[in-house]
Structures are given as structure tokens and as C-alpha cells.
Amino acid sequence: MKRKFFLLTSVIVMLSLLLTAPVAAKGIHGGGNDIQPGEPITLEQNIPVNIVFIGYEKEQIDKQALLDQLPASYSPVVRYPQFYGLPGRDMGLQYNFEYRVSFAGTGTTNKFFNYLKQIGTPNAPTVFQLAYNDQVNNVLDVADSVLYIDAPSVEKWLAKNLNVNKNKGYTVVFINWFNRPDFEFHVYTKTDVVDPDTGYNFGEVRGSRKVIAWGGTTSRLWFYDLSAGPEAWTANYDVDNPDLDGNGYEDYRMPPIWEYTTGGYRDPAALSSDLGLVTRFVAIDLLFTTSPLYDPMVTAPDLHGDKIVHINMMEDDPASLGTDWISTSFVYNQLREFEPYHDWQTNLVDANPIDAGAQRSFRIFAGVLAEDDCWNAFGTPFAQLFCYFDINRDTYIPPYEENDYVVGVHAFNTTADNLGSQFGLLGFADDNWIDGTQSYVFAFDSEDYRSLGYGFSTTTLHETGHHIGMSHPHDGYDSEYGLDFGPADDFYFVWSGDESNTIMHYMDLSDEFGQFDRDNMYRWATAGYLNWANSLLGEIAAHPQAYKVLRYVTRANSYGLQAIQSFNNWSYLTATFKARQAYEQVVIAANILGIEPAPAMQMLRIAPSLTVPHEGDPIRFPDN
To answer: Is residue 79 part of a domain?
Structure first.
């Protein structure tokens, strides 16, 4: 009995070590070192944010006005359950910001603008720069020749020459070339990506993809240049119409730097606070430390399970084949690279032609067929695809292994006529219409879409990105304000978040998950796995035969400590691997003792809400 009691005590001590040894792990109840197995933990991290000005005079910037806009901390939330009035799973993360504001020296500034001239290519003004010239109230006209400058090259130069520490901290660089006598009108470009299905190069062809900001390609840096453009994406070329959509509210956006002047679009005294708004609501809330749309841990496979993307291609156009316009290897490779701690599969089934039930539901969804069906319970035909494929899940998604997680993707190769009122919609990652848990992915393509450059592959990857948790870089959550926001009215300017390296933007300039995506996903997963492990450890500690699994708990303890150490060192991918290994060891221990892991989601179920903003991802600027 003494031997048995000693072993059990050792298990409990080991469990406590896993949770209390790292300073970064603090309990939600009580805090400090009084955590017991089974209680949730919160990983706290200090996040340095460097704000660097290049080309701005110090007297132009009111440092305090900028800093007054910035948050002290950020605690990510699972966004979608909030629309149902539910808190969602506690993410177990808190970031505390440390700000440093600096101005580049004369040598670095001269070197930088000389570099822009060196790599820039003279070209004609974009259609949107010309549109700016046509404004009634514009301060000046863009010249007949502008420089096209490669954005990723500029990001790389800045990261190197500003001594940005990629491993610890983020950097925002605000650029102003306009103050200098060597100023040239310019835009930034990214032309190294083509659509994997159509070969279309959005960055090369479209004026709407010439930008004023970029980052997250090879660094934890994002730059923002108000002396570039004017541009389409944030509509800062339009200085005549404060209210772009006519809804009675100003669509707040940051005009070109020369419009911050007496008689210009914006009072020059607003410049510092405007740049503070960009830092807070774009760089911090949407790029550096963002919140997931859906709970990413819901899609984690069980022990020894795979993560599977099962694609049903619904052939709804006799004149074309959807399978000609999708690359499962592209989807697989990008997801495997993004989440290498999972084993992935991508499988495709071609329904040629589309079956009658799926076709009818698609017609109802698109407004082509006005009939009652399962959507009536949810109050809108937009729910028809979800409810039909959920009721008939076994028909469309074959049985996989019990421990696998399956992303069900229903792709419709169709026509403009069949898309009806939904023409222009590329896809959406739906929830379950009950509590904000993700359900299925829907994607749409047609000859009309393909003529604009869109195949199925990038849409499938983008929407699967939502399904596994990723938000857009143009909508998100502000932790201190408790505010979910998107690019409209007071926050129209957050469209600039799309000007970053991610498949989750609308610009089609990137076909991968970028540095900011990886940082956020790996932090979410690290905290998620450690909290799962912690929850199970509480049950193990209470089990009378806990001594039997001491070796697994010991391994879990080792992996857990390594995970938190890597997390603290900003080695987030390593942290995720180690956190998952810790959880796997705890699962093995629990299985030996006959303890069942709790489901990923344990939310209260409520009646469907008719006010949840169910919507999809449309084509933006289809005519340019």
C-alpha cells in the first residue's frame, strides 16, 4: 500500500510540474503556482511591437496620439460562436504588448529610397491612379509615369536592414517618400503567383492588385506606405465620396499622404491617430495576434487519425468538367506544409452528372427554384446546402477511420444561370447553424469565373482555411473592445489587411498560408493541446490506478515543458509538435485507465439564430 501510494503521489506531483513549472503558464482560477491538474491554463506571452517610420519627419508624428490608439493586451476568442451569444472554448492565450517607436536614420532612409528607385520599373499609372486624377477634390495629379516595385523584395530589404528579429517580435514600418525631393509616384506589386488551375496572374494583369502595403512573406514585418498609390483595395483613390456604399455612414479610409493637408481629404492633425488605427485594427488585430473564425481544435484528428479533405465535385454544367479545374495535390501540399503535425489526405469524387437531390438543393440555394425544404427551419434558403448535405451526410461522405477528421467539401461546377442570385459567390465555409461550430465547405466555379481567373483549387484551400480556423485578414476581433469588425463604415480601412502574404485574403496574390497565419495557428494549437492534456490529467490524477501510467505521464510532462519552452522562444511549430506529443501520451494513459477523452466541443445547444451573419466569399473587383 505504501508503494502504491508513493507512485500515485509521484503521478500527481508530475502532473503539477507539467502545469506549474513554466512562468508562462498561469491558471485561470487562482493564478500563480496553485494550479491543479484538470484546471485550464492560459499561456501568456510578451509581444514586442516595433513601429518604425521611414521618410516621416519627427514633427509630423505625435507619438502619444499614436500610442493612445494601441491595446495593452490581446486575448483571442473563437469568433463565430459569439454571434450565437456563446463564448466558445477558452483559447488559453493572452498576449501583452511592448511598443517601441523609432525613426530610421538618414543613412538608412537614403539607402531605402535609392533601393526603391533601383528595383522599380517605370510604367503607366494604374486605372485607379487615373481615377484619382479625375476626382474633383484631389490635391494633385499622379504623374504620367509611376514606378512598379516588387513588394516581397521591399519586405525582405526592410527586415534585413532594420535588423528585425524574426524570432521574437513584430514590426510595422510606415513609409513616406513624398517628403523628399527624389520622390516618385509608385505602387507595389506581387507577380510571382499564378492561379494553379487557370494560369491567371492577378498581380500582373489587374490594376486593383497594385498595393500600398505588404508583409508576412519572409518575416514578421508589415509595411504600409501612404505615399504609394492611390489604390483600389482601400478605395483611397476616391476623395470625393466619403460614403462609398450610400448607407449614410462615412467609409473611413486613409487617403494618400499628400491629402493630409489643409483643404485636403483629411486634417493633417489626424495622421498620427490614423496610423495608430492601422496599427491596432490591421497589424495587431488582423495579422499579428488575431482570433480564429472557428475553433481550430475541433478539426484535430484523434490519436493515429488523419485530417482528410473529401471533395465531392458536382458536375452541373454539361459543357465542362470541374475535375479539369482543380488540383488536389496543390490543396494537399499547402495544407500539409501549413499543419505538418497532422497526416493529411485529399480525396476527390466526381458526381457526373450531379444527382437530383444535390441539384435541387443547389437550385433552391441559388434562388432558381422557389420551393420549401429543410431551409425553412432556419429562415433562409442560404441554409439549404448545409441542411441538405447534413441530413444526407452518409450519402456524400464515405466512412473513414474512426480517428480521422473529415472536411466535407462540396464543389459545384456550374453555370452563371444556375448560380442565379448567388452569381459572384466563390464559396463559403459554413457553420452548423446551431452554435457556431464549423460544418461543410462549399465552392463554386463556372466558365464565367474561369474567364476571370478563378479555378476550384484556391477557393477550396481558402475555404478549408476558414474551416480549420483561419479568419480573413480584413475582418476580425478586437480583444479589449470586445468588438468583431469588418471592412465597412468606421473600419473600411481594414481592407489593407489583405495586402499581406496569405491565401486568406481576397487579392489572389498568394497561394499559401503566410508567416502571420502560421504564428497564430501554432499558438492556438499549442495552447489547445496543452489544455486538452491538462483536462485529461485531472481525470488521471483522480483515478485510483493512476500509478500504472506513470511512464506516460512522465513523457507527457517532458513534452509539455518542451512545448512551453519553445513557445516562449517563439519556436511555435516546435511548440505545437511537442504539445501534441504531450497530449498523445496523456491519451494513451487515459485509454489504459479506461478514461474517455472529452469531445472537442462542449457547448450549450440553443435554437437557431436568424441574425447570425451567414455569408460567403465573393469576387471583389470582378471587372478589374
So the answer is: yes
